[in-house]
Design brief:
single chain; SH3 type barrels; Elongation Factor Tu (Ef-tu), domain 3; four-stranded mixed sheet; 5 helices; globular
C-alpha cells in the first residue's frame, strides 16, 4: 500500500518456491501509521530511528570506504586507470573504476570547464568514459539472469513498465527475446542505464520479472 516504501524492486530475485512461504504482515499499512503504533505502545525510539535510503549495511552510505575495507589491496590494484572521452581520448588518471558510477558528476576531479558525467565503465581495462549529459540517454538495454514471477515465461513480446533503479518512476518499454537474454526497447530515452544494476518489469502493480542489466545499448 505504501508506495514510498515499496520493496518490489529489490525483491525481484525471490522465486516462487520462497514467495509462497513469505508473509509480509505490514504490506497493507503505511509506515507513518506503524511509527505511530510504536509511539502508542511505548517505543518512541523506534519511531524516531533514521531512515536508510542507500545501502543499509554500509555505514554513512560510504560504499567506496566499504569496498576498500572489504577487498584487500583494491586501491593498489585499480588506481591509475584512465578517464577517456566518448572518442577514446585520454583526459586524466582516476582512482579506480569501482569508485565511480554511471551518471556520476561530482567528485571526478576533472577540469573540463563544464559539467561532465560518467557515461560508461570498462572494468577489464579500468577505463571510465566521460561525456555530456545527453550521452546518458539510451533507449535499449539487454537484461539477463531473468526471474519470472507473474508468468512462467515471456510471450513473443510485451509492453511493460521498467524500473532501472530504486524509486524510479518507470518507463514504458517493449520486452522481447534475444539469444543473449531479454531486450527492453524504451518508447522514450532514459538516463543512466547501468550494467550490473537490476531491471524490474511491471504490469500495473504486479512484478512480471526482474533481471540484471548487461548493457545500456544493443549492438
Amino acid at each position: 500500500m505504501d508506495e514510498t516504501k515499496d520493496q518490489s524492486y529489490v525483491l525481484w530475485g525471490v522465486d516462487q518456491d520462497l514467495l509462497k512461504r513469505t508473509i509480509l504482515p505490514l504490506g497493507g499499512m503505511h509506515k507513518k501509521d506503524i511509527k505511530q503504533m510504536a509511539i502508542d505502545m511505548g517505543y518512541p525510539e523506534l519511531a524516531k530511528k533514521s531512515e536508510s535510503y542507500e545501502i543499509c549495511f554500509v555505514p554513512d552510505n560510504d560504499y567506496r570506504g566499504f569496498l576498500k575495507r572489504r577487498v584487500d589491496g583494491l586501491e593498489e590494484k585499480v588506481n591509475g586507470g584512465w578517464f577517456v572521452d566518448t572518442k577514446g581520448k585520454r583526459l586524466g588518471k582516476h582512482k579506480g573504476y569501482p569508485f565511480y558510477t554511471i551518471g556520476q558528476r561530482k567528485g571526478l576531479e576533472l577540469a573540463m570547464g563544464h559539467p561532465v558525467y560518467v557515461t560508461s565503465i570498462d572494468p577489464e581495462k579500468n577505463i571510465v568514459v566521460i561525456g555530456e549529459e545527453s550521452d546518458l540517454d539510451k533507449n535499449d538495454m539487454l537484461v539477463a539472469k531473468m526471474n519470472w514471477i507473474k508468468y512462467d515465461h515471456l510471450p513473443t513480446s510485451m509492453d511493460l513498465m521498467a524500473k532501472i533503479r530504486y524509486h524510479d518512476t518507470g518507463a514504458l518499454c517493449t520486452l522481447s527475446h534475444t539469444d543473449m537474454g531479454v531486450q527492453a526497447r524504451f518508447y522514450e530515452n532514459v538516463k543512466s542505464i547501468a550494467p550490473g544494476q537490476s531491471a524490474v518489469f511491471y504490469e500495473g502493480d504486479d512484478v512480471v520479472a526482474g533481471g540484471i542489466i548487461q548493457s545500456g545499448v544493443l549492438i
